């Protein structure tokens, strides 16, 4: 069964509060997405394989370690883009493979518009990056794509999840561990009156993660 890790780290709690705030503008929002992504990736990579290697310090020989897993960072466009840069700095040999999906406004189901994965898998561990796990449709579709590609180990690194999305992803892919900063209360229902928010947004959430990063809201 999938492991669902929800961080209670004080730094993450503090930063997620700022992310949620309606007062936070795009520049600060992007910085926070980047920082929270690094902190969550630290947890998500705790079980990566290493092999022992010798290393020479200025003083003596020592035992060292080298990562054995080739890592693929897989941001879901657009909002996942903001999670790439910081994590990539921590693991500069990772490959980055973009998957373009948007949610159809009527059905809330993901529509794929970009995928340039090569024919055969080139990495051992894929970290899917997307700040929002709402209905779970985009995450499930991305895991489907990566499994069809031949990826063996896949983890989902998000920031805020809805219970509905966590349930859908764990049911569809029980072998995919999920790393989040928070699981929120519910998703907005279909609007019933003018001025109601659109359907399928996480409450309390942080609004539209893509629009808030790119200033397009
Ligand atoms: C958002 C978000 C996820 C998706 C989550 O993307 O970044 O990809 O919605 O919703 P789901 O769990 O119900 O599939 P959106 O489709 O708004 O596209 P954008 O990132 O380009 O704004
Ligand atoms: N996508 C977002 O950006 N925010 C949500 O709350 C749900 C989907």
């Amino acid at each position: 069964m999938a492991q669902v890790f929800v961080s209670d780290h004080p730094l993450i709690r503090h930063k997620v509060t700022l992310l949620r705030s309606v007062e936070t503008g795009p520049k600060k929002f992007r910085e926070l997405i980047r920082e929270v992504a690094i902190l969550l990736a630290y947890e998500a990579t705790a079980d990566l394989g290493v092999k022992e290697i010798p290393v020479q310090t200025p003083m003596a020989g020592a035992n060292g370690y080298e990562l054995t897993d080739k890592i693929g960072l897989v941001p879901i466009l657009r909002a996942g883009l903001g999670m790439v840069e910081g994590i990539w700095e921590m693991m500069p040999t990772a490959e980055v493979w973009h998957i373009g999906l948007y949610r159809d406004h009527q059905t809330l189901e993901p529509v794929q518009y970009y995928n340039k994965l090569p024919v055969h898998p080139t990495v051992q561990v894929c970290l899917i990056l997307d700040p929002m796990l709402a209905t779970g449709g985009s995450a499930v579709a991305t895991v489907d794509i990566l499994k069809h590609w031949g990826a063996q180990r896949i983890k989902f690194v998000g920031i805020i999840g809805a219970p509905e999305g966590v349930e859908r992803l764990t049911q569809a892919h029980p072998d995919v561990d999920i790393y989040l900063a928070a699981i929120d209360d519910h998703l907005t229902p279909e609007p019933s009156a003018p001025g109601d928010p659109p359907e399928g947004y996480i409450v309390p959430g942080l609004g539209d993660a893509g629009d808030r990063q790119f200033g397009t809201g």
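Residues 76-79, 101-103, 108, 110, 130, 132-139, 165, 200, 209-210 surround PRP (ligand 1) (CB under 6 Å). Residues 134 and 165 are 5 Å apart (CA to CA).
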